[in-house]
Design a protein that fits this description.
Elements (H helix, E strand, L loop, with lengths): L9 E7 L3 H12 L6 E8 L5 H7 L4 E6 L5 H11 L4 E4 L5 E2 L3 H10 L6 E13 L5 E8 L7 H4 L10 E4 H7 L10 H10 L5 E13 H4 L17 H4 L1 H12 L12 H25 L3 H14 L4 H13 L3 H12 L6 H13 L3 H14 L7 H15 L1
Parallel strand pairs: 1-2, 1-4, 2-3, 6-9
Antiparallel strand pairs: 4-8, 5-9, 6-7, 6-8
Length: 396
Amino acid sequence: MHIRQDSPLVSVLMATRDRLDLLSGALASVVAQSEPRWELLLVNDGGPSPAGVVAGLGDARIRLVELRERRGKGHAVNQAFARSRGAFIAHLDDDDAWHPEHLAVLLAALAGAPGARMAHSDAERVDLAPDGLGGWRETGRALVHRVPASLEALLEYNCVTGISVLHDRALFEEAGGMDEALDVLLDWDLWRRMAALTTPVHVPRVTAEYFVRAEEAGETGAAAPAPAGAHLTGLARRDPVRYVRNRLRILDKPLPLPQDGSLDAALAGARARGRMQLAVALGEAAEAAGDVAVARAHYEGGRDAAPGHVLPWRKLGRLAAAGGEHEAALRAFGKCLALPGAAPADALHAAGAAMALGEPRKALGLLEAAARRFGPEHEGQPAVLRLLTQVRALAR
């Protein structure tokens, strides 16, 4: 696509909906950039108009696009891109913020790495809680990600904060833009596809802040419907099945992998674990609905999809224990203890099943092995030691 000479250097893409009280801070952080050659495409995804917030800043570089109906973040960002003119693209969420040097730092990183098409810096997660006065107070902060992105690093999980990325314009088009069918994890999906086309440059410097408010982090543990403007990542808590289906959609996408086959096994393993996670989520939903048979079938499907993962075995073990199926519980928890990711609770359940079967010496052996394996750093280790003392007395 031809870029006019008078076009801005960087186009900032931002989707917004129902965050009028938070939007001004994000916009102000763009206006404060030390690099002035930018435009901001703000797409309102069917919520109350932010025209007043935009007008209050008085900056003609901010261009507001109003959509009549909510279509989701993916559609909004794609619409922003379609209207953009910059040679480079940056991304910012409507409730987060950049440091003033953010764009300048990332542009310099690309300029200093010939052939590079994508750069990302570090971002801090800033935890906020209500201050009792209608505002927010900071309760903590930490780096979200601190490792260089690559296709290998992004293959199964995200390691890039979406607000810390800058890339060339053509890369967005070549990667296919945002996947509008996704409800969540849209950024990870896009970075993953981009990393298959170029090797990102990492700038080990914090240039952005990602805000998480207490109500969005789910501190109450309530599985209530998402409030307007809540972070999309809350979907993992509110609707685990839907969340995992989104992950699996991403994992199943074809990617141009290295021709030497170095990532083939890793991708196959990631997809198998994705299917296992979906099976477990479906099993948990069935179990919550009281359908034990369906839950067991899903957990067995998860076990078959990823037999080397502890989670479906643990689910099967707990289901068997709850149903008084002690032999099945012992087998399942015994398998857990043979796999990476085993925990002291697995030993406790296995020992309990052995005791229920009248085999105190087997329970003793399980607990002694667990006492050697799990140190004080493991939650549940004191319970293992207490039960070990009791079983030793019984096994004499």
